Amino acid sequence: MENVANRVVLIRQETYERREVRCRIERIIDELGGANRFFRPGMRVLLKPNLLAAAAPEKRVTTDPSVVWAVGAILKDLGVVCTIGDSPGIDPFASVAAASGMTAVAKELGIPCIELSRSVPFPTPECSVFHGIELSSAVMESDAVVNLPKLKTHGQMMLTLGVKNLFGCVVAQRKAEWHYKVGLRRETFASLLLDIAAVVRPALTILDGIVGMEGDGPRNGTPRAFGLLAGAADPLALDLVLSRMLGCPPNDFPLARAARERGIEPAAESVALAGDVDASFRFANVVLPPQDSLHLLPSFLDGFGKSFLVSRPVAVRGACRGCGKCAFVCPAGAVRVDARGPVFDYRKCIRCYCCQEMCPHNAIRFRKGALLTLMRLFGR
Q1: Is the domain of 241 the same as that of 166?
Q2: What is the domain range of residue 326?
């Protein structure tokens, strides 16, 4: 059989009708070498969807329950022992699981739906940039992880696809610590994500792109029908293929830049495409978040740049409901909430986008900085 290690399968699917979704996912698995390549009876498999927040499926913030159901049903028929699990950003797990439809799916399949908790250290490969990575013990206790991301834009990382979804294996309180540790440089955070992916080593990634999100993702963007299911054994290969189809220039995609810097970006000719989407296909006019970088400036100008040149969070007048989630989630302690809404200390702010990502009322936006305007003007 042809080597399928770097194969990415792209299948058209316009609706979330369960039988159709299952049929398409079965085809993806067959194109990747068949179920026996990944699973055997009795294996303990963690199904890792995107459960960012307590949002209904039609908001397209989370992986659709039909996709999780289809994968769970396929594996259950193979005699695999499945668990659904994630570590949401801030909302209580029970609320997230119920709102996203995961509680109902787990009940129907007769499998647990758990919060990924109890942080434990994992061994990292020698080539890792970051060491001392801790993930949920549920990852270590599983024989394999099936990664079930949602196709969405992301304010900090431009896109959240297969690799970024694995950040959910980091237990909630550790996420803020990592955001603070890596600071402002997007490529540094992307490199951390690559290390986490190398530690988790998902057996399979199946991406829900039937209806995804563009604009102010990953929580407050606009749902968009992409009509796509995608799968791969290598989440990085999947992400790079999809980023091109979404119109994301490689030099603007932090994950691609980080992989290139580390010499682990798979060559385009080594990634074989399968399915029914042509390699030349591009989605039209996808609204992507703007990107800029403080580190175009000398380090002694960091304070000036953070305050005046790079994009920064701003309050949307009249939208704040005073819930305080932005202040709670901020790893740098740069946000407080008063009667007017969120107030930002831009010298503390590390531009991690956590406040915007976790605001349930879309009350925080990022205003383009002068640096981004200059970058666009000069075509960078």
Answers
A1: yes
A2: 294-377
Nearest to 150, CA basis, from 208, 97, 99:
208
What pLDDT band is residue 24 in, cutting at 50, 70 and 90? very high
- Same domain, yes or no: 150 and 204: yes
Place of tokens 């080539």: 127
Which uninterrupted H or E stretch holds 197? helix 186-200
**Amino acid in position 265:** E
Place of tokens 């039609």: 58
Is residue 167 located within the same domain as residue 254?
yes
Contact at 8 Å (CB) between 330 and 373?
no
**How far apart, in whole angstroms, are the C-alpha atoms of residue 15 and residue 305?**
45
Run of H or E including 282: none
Q: Which of 48, 19, 29 is nearest to 142 (CA)?
A: 48
> Is the separation of the CB atoms in 114 and 44 below 8 Å?
no
Nearest CA to 76 out of 115, 45, 118, 34 is that of: 45
Per-residue model confidence as pLDDT tens digits over 41-73: 999 999 999 999 999 999 999 999 999 999 999
**Minimal CA–CA distance to 237: which of 200, 276, 266?**
266
Q: For the chain, how many structural domains are there in total?
A: 2
B/e letters for 153-191, b = 16+ CB within 10 Å, e = fewer, are bbbbbbbbbbbbbbbbbbbbebbbebbeebebbbbbbbb
pLDDT digits (tens, 9 = 90+) for 92-145: 999 999 999 999 999 999 999 999 999 999 999 988 999 889 999 999 999 999
CATH of the domain at 143: 3.40.50
pTM: 0.87
Give the residue among 9, 3, 15 at the shortest CA–CA distance from 27: 9
